[in-house]
Amino acid sequence: MGCWLVVGGFALFRRYLAKDAPLFRGGYQPVDGHEEDINSDGESELLDDSFSARNATNPAAKALVPNADQRRPLVGLRVFMLALPACCDITGTTLMNAGLLFVAASIYQMTRGALVLFVGLFSVIFLRRKLYIFHWSALFIVVLGVAVVGLAGAIAPNPQAQPEPRSLVEAGLIAVRDTADHAGAIAKTPEAVQTVIGVLMIAGAQIFTATQFVLEEWILEHYALEPLKVVGWEGIFGFLVTIVGMIVLHLAIGQTAAGRYGYFDMEEGWREITQYRAVAVSSVLIMISIGGFNFFGLSVTRSVSATARSTIDTCRTLFIWIVSLALGWETFKWLQILGFALLVYGTFLFNEIVQPPLRACVRQQKHEELLPEEPIEHM
């Protein structure tokens, strides 16, 4: 439903607000009218044909050009291919939320950082993409940054009980000691089994999410369909699958004595939405957020790649942390600064915004020969 709220919003925007916007209207307009006389014998038509292709190379406009590179249209039964990434999205989200019930938020965050590695690996295996050494280094740096942020959350020292570490080295040593003590304490309790189950569920969710990203990139590469329409179709398939799953689980578990008032009780869920305004408002806002997130993510996938999308997606943690600090929900920790610095640097390095520190890691570009190797014979 959230996907269709975004689709409807974009349709209203295009119809009433974007009529005079150059990006939606076709872009460049000649400044001087006499330039039109320069092209003759059909050259103007050639330039007009190549204009849409030029627009498609622009990352800002590529997601808005329906079919500039003459791909096959995604019509008929081929539309059901979009049900595959929709099912992967539902499965991945369900596993992550269920795994979060068994582990702490910091462990959840650290395990979720493996997404970029799975997306990079699947892109190389299934999409035949070529990732260079600095690409893989950037992915590992992103994972390391996410792990450091999660480690800072796992430490979570009480400022009134003990002072803040004076250096990052001291913070690391304290973290290792506390982690070892905690692991030894819970190794003999059922909580250890719950933690392992939660980590496996979250890690499995990253595989489904990576599959979703790679499938969407393959579909957008081979078929002509705007990311906005992809969001709409995936929203339809996701809604249908969710409704069927809710009904089946309600009949199988929600109506039983043990499942009454539980996660699968549809009647209890509807009662909470209708009687508690905060639940209803937050549900609508979450739907809009997810719909916008899917649209912008698909636009990045079509303009760049699925792996680049996963690295940018991981940076959401930085903005969540900033908002949490502003609202007073999070306490400032210096170790998180190191983690976010690694996260941002790895993202910039993968997308080639910054150059690799080693010259051997720089991608070698082939240049055309300016002069032939053999000497030119003069008449």
Overview of the molecule:
The protein has helices at residues 2-17, 22-25, 43-57, 59-62, 83-100, 105-112, 115-126, 133-155, 168-186, 190-222, 227-254, 266-275, 277-303, 306-314, 316-327, 334-350; strands at 72-73, 223-224. It is globular and about 65 Å long. Residues 26-57, 157-169 and 366-373 have low confidence and may be disordered. Strands 1-2 form a two-stranded parallel sheet. The protein has 379 residues and is mostly helical. The termini are far apart.
Strand content: under 5%
Number of helices in the DSSP assignment: 16
Overall SS class: mainly alpha
**How many DSSP-defined strands?**
2
Largest sheet: 2 strands, parallel
Mean of all residue-level pLDDT scores: 75
> What form results from the Cα inertia axes?
globular
User: What is the helix/strand order?
Assistant: HHHHEHHHHHHEHHHHHH
Radius of gyration: 26 Å
Question: Can you tell me the residue ranges where pLDDT is under 50 for at least 5 consecutive residues?
Answer: 26-57, 157-169, 366-373
Biggest sheet strand order reads 1-2
Helix content: 55-70%
Distance between the termini: 75 Å
Give a short overview:
With 379 residues, the chain is mostly helical. The protein contains 16 helices and two strands. About 14% of the residues have low confidence.
Write the layout of secondary structure elements.
Elements: H1 2-17, H2 22-25, H3 43-57, H4 59-62, E1 72-73, H5 83-100, H6 105-112, H7 115-126, H8 133-155, H9 168-186, H10 190-222, E2 223-224, H11 227-254, H12 266-275, H13 277-303, H14 306-314, H15 316-327, H16 334-350
